[in-house]
Specification:
Blueprint (H helix, E strand, L loop, with lengths): L3 H25 L18 H28 L2 H32 L9 H22 L4 H27 L12 H4 L3 H44 L4
Helix pairs in contact: 1-7, 2-3, 2-5, 2-7, 3-4, 3-7, 4-5
């Protein structure tokens, strides 16, 4: 654990530095887009954070899925920690998406949220699932029944990931398409793609740092709970 904490802190610092650099380059270096194709062309710059936030949240729900499977199959403590870490990061990065997205939507669409857009609504539900998991972990009594319920909800949440990721292709309303997959057709300037890739790399490093720190925190909480149970039973004094 002693080696994990410095690694997590270093990765977090590097990720934050990269994210800040992405923001600065997106605001000051990336070129403007065609004003005839966008209602608010300058507002597109928020996508340099919004898109990496979204993909990082999907990665968090993959971790949640792996943890749920591990818990159900083996009652693995490591699996439970993955559930905790995945739900924490899913909520964190999910909130980044649902905060940054409406800022852009207000400028581009004139409304922060389009209730008729499938992708927006499924993603909002996905973030709500993460919020439920975090609140349930902190409010419900510890035990296998509670963990089973949380793991089952985590599996449901992961089922929304492919639906949300593909919703733009299936039912494209207002939300832009998948930028990386459609980059050639979209004719993105090289500078825009460079900043986007820097954003993806920075958020991936940031995600890894947060994941290590979160797992370390949950390990410490588990050990403290174990020691408290031993104290309550009088095994140790």
């Amino acid at each position: 654990m002693t080696s994990v904490r410095p690694t997590g802190a270093v990765l977090t610092a590097l990720g934050l530095t990269g994210a800040a650099t992405t923001l600065l380059l997106g605001l000051l270096w990336a070129p403007s887009v065609d004003p005839e194709a966008w209602n608010a062309p300058e507002a597109y710059r928020i996508l340099f954070w919004h898109v990496p936030f979204a993909w990082s949240s999907f990665l968090a729900f993959c971790i949640l899925f792996c943890g749920s499977v591990a818990w159900y199959s083996r009652r693995s403590e490591f699996g439970w920690r993955l559930i905790c870490t995945g739900s924490d990061l899913g909520l964190l990065f999910g909130l980044g998406v649902v905060i940054s997205g409406p800022i852009w939507g207000s400028a581009e669409w004139g409304v922060p949220w389009d209730w008729g857009d499938l992708r927006l609504n499924t993603y909002g539900l996905l973030t709500a699932v993460a919020l439920f998991l975090v609140l349930a972990r902190n409010s419900q009594p510890e035990g296998h029944d509670t963990r089973d319920t949380i793991a089952s909800v985590g599996l449901f949440g992961f089922a929304l990931v492919p639906i949300t990721a593909l919703a733009t292709t299936w039912y494209q309303e207002r939300h832009p398409g998948i930028i990386i997959a459609e980059s050639e057709e979209a004719g993105l300037a090289p500078e825009i793609m460079t900043v986007l890739l820097l954003g993806f790399a920075s958020f991936f490093v940031l995600f890894a740092g947060f994941a290590l720190l979160s797992d370390t925190l949950h390990q410490m909480e588990s050990r403290l709970s174990h020691l408290q149970r031993l104290l309550d039973k009088g095994v140790i004094r």
